[in-house]
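Dear U.,

For the methods section draft, I wanted the exact inputs and outputs in one place so we can describe them consistently. I've listed the two proteins in the order they'll appear in the manuscript figures. Please don't edit the token lines directly; just add comments below if something needs changing.

First protein:
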Amino acid sequence: MKIGVHGKEFTRQSAPFIQRIFEVLTQHHAKLYVSNRFAGFLKQSAFKNLKWETYQPSEPLPAMELLISIGGDGTLLESVTHIGKTEIPVMGINTGRLGFLATISREETEHALEQVLKKSYTLDKRALLRLETDPKIFGNLNFALNDFTVVKKDTSAMITIHTFIDGEFLNSYWADGIIVSTPTGSTGYSLSCGGPLIFPRSGNFVLTPVSPHNLAVRPIILSDTSEISFQVDGRSKKFLVTLDSRIATVDNTVKLTIKRADFIVNLVQLEGHHYFKTLRQKLNWGLDVRN
């Protein structure tokens, strides 16, 4: 089986765990491709007898059957930019904190690796959003699994975000910013700003204002077939635009349009794992803090 591996920098204490992942994959005769960046962290003596080839995310990928992300949700979002439109399945091993996307814990890792090597898993298909601008702000990486945001650049006054849905005027938001979230991203920044949780297969975007001046302005759920466009005004002529963890500064001459991307992300889902179980665990639902 041909497997890609991407991860974040790790501590010396985590090296035996990372090493064990490579050993299990090697013992099952997997052909490994490691991202250039992650390979740079694998220079400890523990890894010197292990073999892999490297890949550069900006170049055409080898014919992988699976990509393993080792880190937190941010690392998995980076992994999504590596695979792009190829729709290669991604499995997230969580060495971070919360882990809504990277759901495999350290304790489950060996069993999870054995399951994926047997191809005993299903695919959880997740929609992405796409940003269209002229000029292109993020080049070919103009997509996001979690969210798109427009926020003010500094401590200046709030910005005004004129918002249109399929060409029809919705509202001018006076706020610190606005978030367009996919269902996957509804457990992230949008949630912290009062947005709802959205089931991944519901076919929606959620539009969530960030610190709006008018408290009657609330998040709104839209069909992901909608075209959402923005024009931004403010005292400052510059503002920030983000796609997941990628960020850029643009000026108020740029028109921003969000649509659903024409490809998906396939997240590996093992037996016993489900979105609802992740919600219960990560949000402590049903946990009585008095006990």
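Second protein (the one for the lower panel):
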Amino acid sequence: MTNEALQQLLTSWNPNLEFTDENNAYLNVTVNAEDLHQFMLQLKENTETSFDYLFCLTGMDWGKELGVIYHLESTTHRHTLVVRVKTSDRENPNFDTVSNIWYTADFHEREAYDFFGIKFNNHPNMKRLFLTEEWEGFPMRKDYVDDVNMVIK
């Protein structure tokens, strides 16, 4: 499926999607946080899309917003998609887990929590992955300061 055809299909599912042109091979779409889980489930289960492979999940700090970027591929149809979700709530950023859709999300979501403080609702084991439980703060955030451990940006 071409990016144009994929965009038309996804817009028919949810007219509130925001598409961006990143000048690359992947179609980029931003979904509202409250629609994330259902949208992702539909991406996997719909036979026209069949996104059966989550090959990357990345936490992001865009300054005013925190979010997650998901890279998906259909091994059946050989098309890819980048899905973004954002929140301006830096005090309590959270999104629904997709680990019950793609098992590979389990550790990726824990990593996003560990380094960005993004929590995933209904995650089976939402705890730090790399840093100790005593660690204060989230070192990949742009506003993170740690004079003790000398994290320099």
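Candidate sentences for the figure legend, describing the second protein: The chain has a mean pLDDT of 93. Residues 105-116 form the longest helix (12 residues).

Thanks,
Y.
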